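Progress narrative, work stream C.
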Amino acid sequence: MVAGEASGDFLGAHLIAALRERVPGLRFVGIGGPKMEAEGLDPWFPMEKLAVRGYVEVLPTVHYVSPSLWAWRGGRMSAIAASVDKILVLFPFEEPLYRAAGVPVAYVGHPLADATSDEDESAAAKEQLRLPATRKVVALMPGSRQSEVRYMASSLIQTAKLIAARQPAVHFLVPLVSRETRAIFEEAMYEAGAGELPLTVLFGHARDAIAACDVALVASGNIIAGEFLVPEILQDQATPENLAQAVLNSLNDPVVNRRLPERLDQIRRLLRRDTAARATEALLPWLQSA
């Protein structure tokens, strides 16, 4: 098994636990992070040395999580078809794309949807993070790779400074996955003269930050909704001023605050498919024939 960054480590650990339950004697080796190692992976190489932005397909394999070919470089579909024995996808719209291209594919749902509760966890998350229940909370999520944090940190910090100047009683949460990414972000804080920002850097705890926040500013995105739900600000438009205004609009719009959680809950239920069981069922025949 090979995982190149924190989200892959989470997915890999989830899969290892499910496979071990079905095949107790199975041995797991390769490259992973602390979550995969905790589930029994014998690591050959530190995951932090591998973490990059982008994708490289090296050997015939089972690919867990599709590269974003539907968003960029769709011509690579033929290369994927030639290099994988099976691909397990997290989003329902990906399955027909691969099936039409002749790639063996299974839609397994998203493990984060399985892991979230049906209950509103915001109050409990704020209490765990020692935040006042009435405080507006913004999560800044620059990514898990060092290159992502280095690229995004300054812009997010400048955005936070603008928000703090306009929104009373706001607090920022920044979940980071490693000492290296934390050092990069803290250096950017120092360079920006942002030491007075009401901001807490978390070591991990991304799920807690998301549960506690009123708005998340995320260096990511996908098209699962099939409709406009939240602002997606790209490339040169992603200035601190534009990002800050989008966050403030979301924080203070009562219609958004009422309707968006309902729509996001519908999407979560669509993605909740007992991913571990589905992924295991998809892999067992391949493992038995290997």
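Work stream C, second folded protein:
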Amino acid sequence: MDMRPAFPGAPAPLTPPVRVVLIEDDTDLRDSLADLIGLAGFEVLTGKSALEFYQILASQPFEIAILDVGLPDQDGFSIVEHLKANHHRHGIIMLTARDGTEDRIQGFRRGADLYFTKPADGRELVAAITSLALRLRATDPHPAAAETAPPAAPSAGEATGPEPGTADWRLDPQQWALRAPSGLSVSLTAQEMRLLGCFLTAPDGIATRSALLGSIGKNPVETEDRSLDAAIRRLRRKVEQAIGQDLPLKTVPTKGYQFTAPLR
């Protein structure tokens, strides 16, 4: 394997390669950045929405996330807040057209490591990814593996859950729908897709009130805002009326809500 830098001045690729997730809704920009990052020796996974990011987060290990702030379904700041609230150990680079000081401060307060304004210099972005990955690996030699460690095998006599896929609820981002284990589906609004997307990567299926509030466009700090509970009630009623089955969501006092069945 050729380990030379992809262009003059670029840092040499790391071993093992750094896996980067790039979320950008502008197709041309996403493709050009993915090509540049890939040529620099990184593995790249791409998506165009917050929902696609959460699906990658639930299924693929990675070290660095590059997030556009202005996504169509949930802003990048809310994704960062979700990652930090659920103790995910990823490096986070914000990539956005917003160049105001307040926007940059907000990004750092939410937990971003670096903030780039479009159009970002490709060499600087590659150097930033390398530097951030080295910093992460210095504190945790296997950060990506730690995020996707398989669950421990059950002890003798311990009950096991259903086989994967037999009792799963599924979010379908192409059809904007939630599919029940029975095979019946219910169409979802953009807000409902964002809300349910929070449960895809939440530990034990428990999403915090802050993360859920952010997903429906409310202030995540105002955790006493009852609009979240109203949105949950409407979603439960909608699912029950559409497919005749209860949505497996329960309240977790002082925390938020838990999706008690497998969701993917």
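The mean pLDDT is 80. No further action is required on this item.
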